[in-house]
Amino acid sequence: MFSLSTISVSTLLALLPYVSAQAPAVVKDGLDPRLVLQGINHGYLHNVSVSDVPLRSVCTFSNQWYSQCLPGSAPTTAVVTQPATTTTSGSAPTTTAASKANYWFSFGDSYTQTGFTPSGTLPNSVNPFGNPDFPGWTATGGTNWVGYVTTTYNNSLLYTYNYAYGGATIDANLVKPYTPTVLSLTDQVNQFLTTVANKPASTPWTSSNALFSIWIGINDIGNSWYLSGDRGAFSDTLLNAEFALVQKLYDAGARNFLFVNVPPIERSPLMLRESTESQAGERAVIAGFNSRLVAKANAFAAANSGVKTFFWDSHAQFTTILNSPQTYGFKDATSYGSGSDIFWGNDYHPSSFAHKFFGQEVGQNALEGTIW
Ligand SMILES: *[C@@H]1O[C@H](CO)[C@@H](O)[C@H](O)[C@H]1NC(C)=O
Ligand SMILES: *[C@@H]1O[C@H](CO)[C@@H](O)[C@H](O)[C@H]1NC(C)=O
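Structure tokens predicted for Carbohydrate esterase family 16 protein (372 residues):
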């Protein structure tokens, strides 16, 4: 048998379709988030990450802030570390019966993922994420912004259905994810539509007690900004696809929407290894995407009665912190690793310590005065 730390990335990726057919949840959760990040930049950046980032084998929960994942002590298969989800499919424990929760349906990519499996235990009073155990399988370990908003900067008891999936693009037909098993925003919305959209007894959400959030675009742009053609027009195409999905959510009863723009990922350590031309190129595409996002959200709200939109300007918040890291307790804007004074948890994802600021911003500013 092989150990996960010694097999090659291509071997592991090659295994995925097979393993996926057996146990999709385990594949997603057993996948090293840093492997996901390699896929995020498939193509010209691929080799950089592969050589820099060892595959994790075993993740150990250290404390509320950090789960450490060490290579070298892997079990003998590629499927690792996800505790089994044992309860009845799609059910909520009876302990939730008396709880009066509000609902958050969250969609996105690795910046948002916690490893939720919709057919597993649903959010409940013991674990507001349902599954996996809080804080879930986040990109760099520890609690991410969804966890902080759900449990720390929440204005009520929140049950969070987090469909976000590492590596996600809006639509795999528009921008291919790094591997076909990635659930795109389209797939995630379909998961919602085919499970709890009809407000089953397990999930008694209403138009007024539910918030729908979408933070997407990082991988769409990361995997396409360097292509030829009119990138602004392509951002329109991407956002039209996103808002067609938003319309489906509206048709299912969604009225409250939190939109999140794309942060300055050209300032990630991974992109800082690229040329300044590359950084500038990606920056420009992000700016175009973000300004269109605001316009589309406004147009959507104007065209559909009863819609309330909230906005978290993640681009502004990342920029503020990265321009003055020490103000926020970070030693600089470029290091990555596991220290509490490091903004980037790895070379493409913010640390849990950064996510705490994001959660605070969303809970206390973007959603200020709301029930969420
Ligand atoms: C990446 O690795 C492959 C396989 O080793 C190689 O063919 C390719 O030239 C490399 N690309 C870059 C940009 O280094
Ligand atoms: C926030 O969420 C936590 C965890 O579910 C819960 O214990 C707490 O009561 C919530 N806060 C408010 C203000 O409802």
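The CA atoms of residues 36 and 167 lie 6 Å apart.
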